[in-house]
Design goal:
alpha/beta; Rossmann fold; Arc Repressor Mutant, subunit A; six-stranded mixed β-sheet; four-stranded parallel β-sheet; 12 strands; globular; Peripla_BP_I; HTH_AraC; transcription cis-regulatory region binding; DNA-binding transcription factor activity
Length: 389
C-alpha cells in the first residue's frame, strides 16, 4: 500500500482569495489521491511556521510574499509551487490569476457602458497591482479613452486612518472628469474610493463608477453602494497549483530550466450598483441597452429591442455604435458569449446546455460564433482554463 504524500500549504486563511485557492486544492484532492495536509491558521505576510524547519514532507504550495517564507521553502529542497504574484523565487513554478485579462475585462466593462474617461487606483508596490495598471492603461489608450491613475505611494496597503493618504486620494478623485469609471486594484481599495466619494458628496455611479477585483462578497455588499467586482477563478488557480505539484512530486525532475507559469483568467464580473449606469443622457438608448443586458440570454433579437424604445433601427444602431463602439446585435452577442464563457468555466454543462442557457438557438451556432470571436471552440476554451501560458 502506497503511503500518502505529505504536503504543506503555506496560505493565509484570512481572505476570500486564499480561501478560494484552498477550495481548488480540495477539489483536486477529491478527484485524485488524498494527501496528508499540513495547514495552520496564518495571516498574509506571516512568518514561516515553526514546524517547517524540521518537517519531512513531499511538497509545498505557498504564497511566497516575504523573504522569510522564500528562504524557508528554499531550504526544504522539496518540490514547490508558488501561488503569489510577488515572484520572490523566480526559479519556482508559478500559478496566478491573469492580471492582463482582468484589466481587459475591466476596460470592456466601462466601454460597454459608454465611458470614455477611465482611471486606475492602485498600490503599485505589489506586482499584481502594477501589472493591472499597465495593462489597463494600454487597453485604455488603444480605445482612445482619457486615462488617469493613482498610486497609494506606500509599501503598506492604503490605510484610511492616514490623513495624508486620505487627502491625496480625495484630491485625485476631485480632479477627475465626470463621468469617470475607476478600476480599483482590489475590493478593499474600491471600498475606500466609495467612502471618499460619499464624504465628498460625489454621486456613485452617476459621476464616478467604481469596479473592484476579487468579489469578496461580504465586503462588496458592505460597501455603499454595493461594489461591482471582477471574479477571479481562485478555484481553478488552486486546482492547477495542486495538479502541478502532483506532477512535480511524481516526476524525478523537480527543477526545470524554464519553470511552469500558469495564468488563470477571471470568471466574469459581479455587477452591482457601484457601476450600474450608462455614461449617456440618451434616455432611449440607455433603456435599450438595459433591456439588452437583462434579456440578451433569452434569445432576443434587435427587433425585440426596437419594440421597447421609440427609435428606428438606423437611429438605434447609430447611437449604440457611438456610445459603446458596437451595434445592438454585437452587444447582444457579446453578453451571450460572456455568459457562455462563465458556464463553460464554472459548470460541467454540455455545450448544448450552455448554448440554451446563453440564448443561442443551437450548440452548432454557439460553436461557430465562439470560434469566430475567441479563436477557440467551446471545448478548447473550457480546457484552456487550466492551460499553461
Amino acid at each position: 500500500m502506497t503511503s500518502r504524500r505529505s504536503v504543506a500549504l503555506l496560505l493565509e486563511t484570512s481572505n476570500a482569495y486564499a480561501r478560494g485557492l484552498l477550495d481548488g486544492i480540495i477539489d483536486y484532492l477529491r478527484e485524485h489521491e488524498q494527501w496528508s495536509i499540513h495547514l495552520g491558521e496564518q495571516e498574509r505576510g506571516a512568518k514561516p511556521p515553526h514546524w517547517l524547519k524540521n518537517w519531512r514532507g513531499d511538497g509545498i504550495i505557498a504564497r511566497i510574499e516575504t523573504e522569510a517564507i522564500a528562504n524557508a521553502v528554499r531550504q526544504t529542497g522539496l518540490p514547490i509551487v508558488d501561488v503569489s504574484a510577488a515572484r520572490l523565487v523566480p526559479s519556482l513554478p508559478w500559478v496566478e490569476t491573469d492580471d492582463r485579462e482582468i484589466a481587459r475585462m475591466a476596460l470592456e466593462h466601462f466601454l460597454s457602458r459608454g465611458f470614455h474617461s477611465v482611471a486606475f487606483c492602485g498600490e503599485n508596490y505589489f506586482n499584481w497591482s502594477r501589472w493591472r495598471a499597465e495593462a489597463f492603461e494600454e487597453f485604455a489608450n488603444e480605445a482612445e479613452c482619457q486615462f488617469e491613475s493613482f498610486d497609494s505611494g506606500s509599501r503598506r496597503r492604503l490605510n484610511m486612518g492616514n490623513t495624508r493618504q486620505r487627502t491625496r486620494l480625495a484630491k485625485w478623485i476631485l480632479s477627475l472628469p465626470r463621468p469617470t469609471g475607476i478600476f480599483a486594484c482590489y475590493d478593499f481599495m474600491g471600498q475606500q474610493i466609495l467612502d471618499v466619494c460619499r464624504e465628498l458628496e460625489i454621486s456613485v455611479p452617476e459621476q464616478i463608477a467604481v469596479l473592484g477585483v476579487d468579489n469578496d462578497q461580504r465586503l462588496c455588499r458592505l460597501c455603499s453602494p454595493p461594489l461591482s467586482s471582477i471574479i477571479p477563478d481562485t478555484r481553478a488557480t488552486g486546482y492547477a497549483a495542486a495538479q502541478l505539484l502532483d506532477e512535480l512530486m511524481t516526476s524525478s525532475r523537480t527543477r526545470k530550466s524554464q519553470p511552469a507559469q500558469i495564468l488563470i483568467p477571471p470568471q466574469g464580473i459581479a455587477e452591482r450598483q457601484s457601476s450600474d449606469m450608462y455614461a449617456s443622457d440618451d434616455v432611449d438608448l440607455v433603456a435599450a441597452l438595459r433591456f439588452i443586458r437583462e434579456h440578451a440570454c433569452e434569445g432576443i433579437t434587435v427587433n425585440d429591442v426596437l419594440r421597447q424604445v421609440p427609435l428606428s433601427r438606423r437611429a438605434l444602431e447609430a447611437r449604440c455604435q457611438k456610445l459603446t463602439g458596437r451595434t445592438p446585435h454585437a452587444e447582444i452577442t457579446r453578453i451571450k458569449l460572456e455568459r457562455s464563457k462563465r458556464l463553460l468555466r464554472q459548470t460541467g454543462l454540455t455545450v448544448h446546455e450552455v448554448a440554451q442557457r446563453s440564448g443561442f438557438s443551437q450548440a452548432e451556432y454557439l460553436s461557430v460564433v465562439f470560434k469566430k470571436q475567441t479563436g477557440q471552440t467551446p471545448g478548447e476554451f473550457r480546457s484552456s482554463g487550466l492551460a499553461g501560458s
